[in-house]
Amino acid sequence: MKREFYLQDDQSNKFWTIEVQGPAVITTNGRVGSKPRETRKHYPSQSVAEAVVEGHRGHPHSQRHA
After folding, report:
1. Which sign, positive or negative, has the C-alpha torsion 35, 39, 45, 48?
2. In the chain, what are the domain boundaries?
3. Which of 26, 31, 44, 47 fits a 20 to 30 Å CA distance from 20?
4. 1, 25, 14, 21: which is closest to 64 by C-alpha?
5. Distance (Å, rounded) from C-alpha 6 to C-alpha 33?
6. 38 contacts 26 by C-beta, under 8 angstroms
7. What tens digit of pLDDT does each residue of 46-57 get?
8. How far apart (Å, rounded) are the C-alpha atoms in residues 32 and 42?
9. Which CATH architecture has domain 3-61?
10. Contact assessment for residue 27 and residue 5, using Cβ atoms and an 8 Å cutoff
11. How distant, in Å, are the alpha carbons of 10, 20, 33, 35, 39 from that of 62?
């Protein structure tokens, strides 16, 4: 599942996404309307990749924009 986060205020209009595709975690980020920057990290298995993404759920910054 792809999760999306946005930061929109007087000074910012940014986004951040994270998703699992097999054993890879793919994150994208950037300004809304611009070409996103993408990062891929590969893990030993899909279950490990999913555990990494679940770990982000408890991160305090994730709660601000969820």
Report:
1. negative
2. 3-61
3. 31
4. 14
5. 12
6. yes
7. 999 999 888 865
8. 26
9. Single Sheet (2.20)
10. no
11. 20, 17, 22, 22, 18
Residue with tokens 């793919």: 26
Three-state DSSP class for residue 10:
coil
State pLDDT tens for residues 8-18.
999 999 999 99
* Six-digit token string for 55: 């770990």
Give the burial class of 25: count Cβ atoms within 10 A of its Cβ; 0-12 exposed, 13-18 middle, 19 or more buried.
buried
Q: What residue ranges in the chain does DSSP mark as E strands?
A: 3-8, 13-21, 24-31, 37-42
Q: Which amino acid belongs to residue 46?
A: Q
